[in-house]
Amino acid sequence: MEFENYSEATRILYEGHTIKGMSMSPEAFPLFNTTAFNMGDLNDVDKTYEEKGYTYVRTRNPNREALAQLISFLENGKKTLIFSSGMGGITTTYFALLNPGDHFICNSYIYGETFDAINQLLKKCSVEVDFVDFTDLQSVRAAVKPNTKMLYTEVVSNPTDIVADIENLADIAHEAGAWLMVDNTFTTPLAVKPMELGADIVLNSLTKFMNGHSDALAGSITVDDCALYDRIHEIRMLTGTSASPHTAWTVFRGMQTVHLRVNKQMENAAKLAKALEEHPIVLKVNHPSIPSNPQHELAGRIFKDNTHMTGMLSFDMPDDKDKINAFMNRLKLARYAPTLGGIRTTLSHPLHSSHHHVPEEDRKKMGISYGTMRVSCGIEEGEDLIRDFMYALEVFQ
Ligand SMILES: *Cc1c(COP(=O)(O)O)cnc(C)c1O
C-alpha cells in the first residue's frame, strides 16, 4: 500500500482518502463534508485563490455551490449565495450594502423577525428606517429621500397574503438610485421570479417551501450584479453565516422535488381557499386567487396563473377560543406547527406567534383577529384536505 512505511497513528489519517471514486461521477450529488481542500505547491495555492477555487469551508464549498447554481437558475438571476438561515441572508446583506446615514424603506407588512432585525440592528448601525404601507405606491414614492439606498418587501405578506407590486416598486427604487430587495419565501420562484419584474436582490428562506421537508435551516440571496455578489460574499465570510455542507446537501436533495411539491401546494391552497370562501361560518379568506380579493388583478399580473400563487392562506373564524380549539382538535390532517412550507399541511395562529406583540388597534388595521388562522398547504390530495377542514368547521354549527 501507498502508506505502508508509516506508523499506525499516521496511517489512520491517510488510508481511505485515495479510494477509487474520488474522481468518479456519482449519480447522486455527494456530501463534501470537509472544512478544507488540499492544494499542491505554492503555485497551486496562487492558482486556487485566483480562480476562486475551493479553499476553506466558510469561503466556498461544492454543496453550497451546487445549491446556489440551482437557485440562480430558478430565480433567473446570475449569482446566488447560500446562508445558514433566511435571517442570516437578510442581516448579512444589510451589513454588506447599507452604511450609517443611509435611508431604508420597508413594507409595513413584514415577517416578525425581519421587522425586529431592522429595528434592532439597522438602527444600531445608524441606518434611517421608515415603514410604509406598500399597497399605497404614492406613499412609497413620497417616502423616498436623497439618501434612500434600499426598498424592502415580501411578495405576499404574512398572514393575510397582501401582494406587493414588484414592477412598480422596482421603478420607484431605481428612479431613486436605490435597490429593491424582495423576500420570495411565501411564493417561491415557482410562482414568481422577482428579478424578472425588476428586483435587484432576492431572498429565500430555504427552510420553508424550497427544502420542503422541515428538516433544514438555510437561506439564499440571488443577485444579477457580480459586484454586489462579491460584497455580500465578503461580509458572509466575516459574519460566518455560510450554510454548512450538510445543510446545503439536504436542501439540494429536498429541492429535487420542488417542482412537484410546490406546484401542488399552491394548487391545494387555491382549492382550499375557494372551499373556505364558500363556507357559511368563515368570515373572510385571504388568498390572491379569490376573485373578490381587492388585489386579484395585481396578482394576475405578478403570478404565472390563478392556481399558482402561494401555498399560504389565512381565514377568519368567529373569535371564539373554545370553538377554535374544538376545530383544531377535530382536524385529522392539518397540525399546528411554528413553521411553513412543509409537505404536510400546518396551521399557525398569528395572535400566538407573529403578531403576538402587535397592539390590538394595529392588528385590526392589518385584518388580523383572534379568529384568524394561517394555513400552509401540504401535498395531500386537495379533496382530502378540503374534507378535513369542512368536517372540523362543523364545530361552529
Ligand atoms: C421563515 C422566514 C424568514 C426567515 O427564515 P429562517 O430560515 O427561519 O431564518 C424570512 N422571511 C419569511 C417570509 C419567512 O417566512
TrEMBL record:
Reactions it catalyzes:
L-methionine + H2O = methanethiol + 2-oxobutanoate + NH4(+); L-homocysteine + H2O = 2-oxobutanoate + hydrogen sulfide + NH4(+) + H(+)
Reading the lineage from the top rank, the first entry is Bacteria
According to the record, the signal peptide region is: none
> What protein does this entry describe?
homocysteine desulfhydrase
Recorded hits in PROSITE patterns, A to Z, give: CYS_MET_METAB_PP
Under the heading SUPFAM superfamilies, the entry gives:
PLP-dependent transferases
One Gene Ontology cellular component annotation?
A: cytoplasm
- The chain residues annotated with the modification N6-(pyridoxal phosphate)lysine are K208
Q: Work out whether the entry's keyword set contains Cytoplasm.
A: no
GO BP term, pick one:
transsulfuration
Q: Which cofactor does it need?
A: pyridoxal 5'-phosphate
Stretches assigned to coiled coil: none
Q: Which GO terms describe its molecular function?
A: homocysteine desulfhydrase activity; methionine gamma-lyase activity; pyridoxal phosphate binding
Q: Which family does it belong to?
A: Belongs to the trans-sulfuration enzymes family.
* InterPro entries, alphabetized: Cys/Met-Metab_PyrdxlP-dep_enz (IPR000277), Cys_met_metab_PP (IPR054542), PyrdxlP-dep_Trfase (IPR015424), PyrdxlP-dep_Trfase_major (IPR015421), PyrdxlP-dep_Trfase_small (IPR015422)
Q: Name the keywords, alphabetized.
A: Pyridoxal phosphate
Keyword Transcription regulation (UniProt): no
Q: What is its EC number?
A: 4.4.1.2
Q: What class of enzyme is it?
A: lyase
